[in-house]
Structure formats: C-alpha cells, structure tokens
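Hi support team,

I submitted a single chain yesterday and got back a structure, but I'm not sure I'm reading the token output correctly. Could someone confirm the output below corresponds to the sequence I sent? I've pasted both exactly as they appear in my results page.

Thanks,
R.
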Amino acid sequence: MATDPSEYDKSMPIVAAHLAKVERAVDGVRTSHTGRPYTEVHQALVAALQAEDTQRVVPQVIERYVWQISEQPKS
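Hi R., thanks for writing in. Yes, this is the structure output for that exact sequence:
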C-alpha cells in the first residue's frame, strides 16, 4: 500500500498546528504548576489542552507530561 507523497504535504500543516497547541498548553502548565502535586497538575493540563482545543491527545502522553511537571523541582 503506497501513500501519495502529496497527502503527507497536505497533512503536515495540520499536524504542526496541533503540536503547537499541545506545546502551548504544556508550557503554560509547566510555568504555573512545576513541582505541584500530580493530581493538581493533571487537572491543569487537561483544562489547558481543552482550552487549546486539543482533545485528541493520547492519554499516556498526558500522563508523561504530568509526571514530568509534577516531579520537576521548582527553580
């Protein structure tokens, strides 16, 4: 099954825009919630992702970001 290269070119701007939204949400939560309890970070990240209209994020990815943010020492 061959994939048309033009389909890749059409999809990449959509993927890049989605990733930019995820990055904004994670950066915002990292700035405001570094070192806070896991549950608090999780709630904040889910809310930030919803605010960015990025409901399609793999749950394991969210969990990994939450773990990193909650475990990161405050600077």
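A quick pointer for reading it: The mean pLDDT is 91. Let us know if anything else looks off.

Best,
Support desk
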